[in-house]
Amino acid sequence: MALLTCEGVTRTFGGMVAVNEVDLHVNEGEIVGLIGPNGSGKSTMVNLITGVLPPTSGRIMFDGRDITGLPSWKINRRGISRTFQLLRLFKSLSVADNISMPLHPRHRAGLLASILGRSEATAEDEASYAQACELLDLFELRAFADRPASDLSIGQQRMVELARGIIVNPKLFVLDEPAAGLSPPNVDKLIALIRRLRDERGITILLVEHVMRVVQELCDRVIVLDYGTKIADGPPREVSEDPKVVEAYIGGGKVSRRARA
Ligand SMILES: Nc1ncnc2c1ncn2[C@@H]1O[C@H](COP(=O)(O)OP(=O)(O)OP(=O)(O)O)[C@@H](O)[C@H]1O
């Protein structure tokens, strides 16, 4: 069953069409890759799905409801979580605090009570800390719970970003280039971890990724964008042999192709 459906989704910036009439769906329990040359519209598509940007036209349905144009915090509450291309950790905060941060606005006691140090806030803080530690066990980073995020390597920081994304128990987790800058052993760890998120926690995954090994090994299905238009949608092996996809990549992305034009 489709958890996410985009119908005729378009986004323009001035006269430039970044995403052009895209139809796509992600089924419950699937790991779907969203790929394409530089500038093909992947990040814009992610921003439209997660409410960072409203579409210019088209409709986005999630879990049976229309989420088109909702702000990102509402979309997050409906069950879509995401990571960003650039790491967004608070380096001086502890690893556990970074992971539990998305829980705080949801707490009954809220930020003010937390500042005033009321006991209800303390109980919720303890519960958040325990949840963060449980995820740190899963990510094999438990020993770092109380250390500042700045003590972590880039690979470990990416894991912390993933943990922060799933602490709210999303139905759909959208990952924007999670393998960027990772060493090959860390890419292996990432692949295993994302698979566990789906298999053990039932989280559906939409993954933007340039590292093709991740896409080939992990994805059930791959959607390809080129110049904002969907040009392929199918199993990874089939898509990688599709002449339109080969041409899009050989064409080299927006810089060289627009220069050629
Ligand atoms: N806020 C914006 N204002 C104007 N143009 C934008 C904006 N965001 C994206 N674009 C343009 O939209 C097009 C698609 O960009 P987008 O970042 O979505 O592509 P991408 O496939 O994610 O690229 P990359 O792989 O390099 O991250 C590009 O031509 C980009 O310059």
TrEMBL record:
PROSITE patterns: ABC_TRANSPORTER_2 (PS50893)
InterPro entries (alphabetical): AAA+_ATPase (IPR003593), ABC_AA/LPS_Transport (IPR051120), ABC_transporter-like_ATP-bd (IPR003439), BCA_ABC_TP_C (IPR032823), P-loop_NTPase (IPR027417)
Keywords: ATP-binding, Nucleotide-binding, Transport
Domain ABC transporter intervals: 4-252
The UniProt record lists the keyword Nucleotide-binding: yes
GO BP annotation list: D-alanine transmembrane transport; L-alanine transport; L-isoleucine import across plasma membrane; L-valine import across plasma membrane
PANTHER family to which the protein is assigned, alphabetical: AMINO ACID ABC TRANSPORTER ATP-BINDING PROTEIN, CONSERVED COMPONENT OF ABC TRANSPORTER FOR NATURAL AMINO ACIDS-RELATED
Protein name from the UniProt record: ABC transporter ATP-binding protein
